[in-house]
Write a structure and sequence with these properties.
By secondary structure, the protein is an alpha/beta fold. The protein has 2 domains: 101 residues, Vaccinia Virus protein VP39 (Rossmann fold, 3-Layer(aba) Sandwich); 172 residues, Hnrnp arginine n-methyltransferase1 (Distorted Sandwich). It contains 7 helices and 15 strands. Helix 3 links the parallel strand 1 and strand 2. The longest helix is centred in the first third of the chain and has 14 residues. The two termini are 24 Å apart.
Length: 310
């Protein structure tokens, strides 16, 4: 249902308004040229045109580009050039003043925004502007058992059957879920940044980061919530923070293999590694629990590759 995917994006007024404001700030009517990389149905290209861009180049390898062409014609937008090709396959791109690309996923990098914008830098004239520019990824422990209980449904199959192997595969996966602010650890510094990347530069496709917490009172951790903040331009940003304005993106949930029961003074640590060198993303995470007074961590290791039926 590809059209449904595009409908949900275009219904996201928070997303649309942020990109419109970013384009408004950089387009000089009658002068600025723009490249929309991964244009989809063409909304950002149409915005750029209506804001006065002299010409807009639209790159989209999917069949949806034909719908974008029809929509441009229906809306009387004539200063667009369409290329049914992935931007990375363009050998000699037309230089532009602005490159804009909305290739963000629920996990920020899963639609290959790092790789796409690393390449798209060559589309820009000297002094040109890339939108978006930076991404920060955040994490916080989840103290609610709501999502973990859903994933542990294998324990409730019944009939005297053991589905532990299937449960282990479920837990070695990343889940798109809406996490409520009250489901997160309520402690100073509970939300932490585990990764920062500058787009259009040399940001590596393999990302690693860490976060840690020392508890001042007992808590049981069932998993971890992930979200991102993306700076389109200085002063213009989008975020998927559980406490922020709702968007069509949701938070992500990293399960634990077993709930982590922490006492006051215990240390909790999380190490995350993501890899987007191929289509999509693979993620692995290690959870460490060091009880107060101990010099050893209790370790849980999870990896999306273990959750794949192959």
């Amino acid at each position: 249902m590809l059209i449904e995917f595009h409908r949900t994006m275009l219904a996201d007024t928070v997303r649309n308004a942020a990109f419109h404001e970013a384009l408004r700030r950089v387009i000089v009517p009658g002068e600025t040229t723009v490249a929309d990389v991964g244009c989809g149905t063409g909304l950002l290209a149409f915005m750029a045109s209506r804001l006065g861009a002299r010409q807009v180049h639209c790159y989209e390898h999917g069949e949806v580009i034909h719908l974008a062409e029809r929509l441009a014609k229906a809306n009387g937008i004539r200063n667009l050039v369409f290329y049914q090709e992935h931007s990375t396959a363009i050998l000699d791109p037309e230089p532009v003043d602005v490159v804009v690309s909305e290739t963000l996923g629920n996990f920020a990098y899963e639609e290959n925004i790092l790789e796409t914008l690393r390449d798209a830098r060559r589309f820009l004239r000297r002094g040109g502007v890339l939108i978006p520019q930076r991404i920060e990824q955040h994490v916080a422990p989840v103290v609610s058992g709501r999502i973990q209980s859903e994933l542990a449904a294998w324990d409730r199959v019944g009939y005297g059957l053991d589905f532990a192997a299937a449960k282990a595969m479920s837990l070695n996966n990343l889940y798109v879920r809406s996490v409520l602010p009250e489901e997160l650890l309520d402690a100073p510094g509970a939300a932490q940044c585990w990764d920062r990347a500058t787009l259009g530069g040399r940001a590596a496709s393999v990302r690693t980061g860490e976060a840690s917490w020392t508890l001042d009172r007992p808590a049981t951790i069932h998993g971890f919530a992930l979200w991102w903040r993306c700076e389109l331009l200085p002063g213009v940003a989008l975020a998927t923070d559980p406490a922020g304005p709702a968007t069509h993106w949701e938070q992500l949930y990293l399960p634990t293999l077993e709930p982590v029961r922490l006492g006051a003074g215990d240390r909790l640590a999380l190490r995350i590694r993501s890899d987007t060198r191929r289509e999509g993303a693979t993620i692995r995470w290690q959870i460490g629990h060091r009880p107060a007074g101990s010099d050893r961590d209790l370790i849980q290791q999870l990896d999306m590759r273990r959750g794949d039926l192959g």
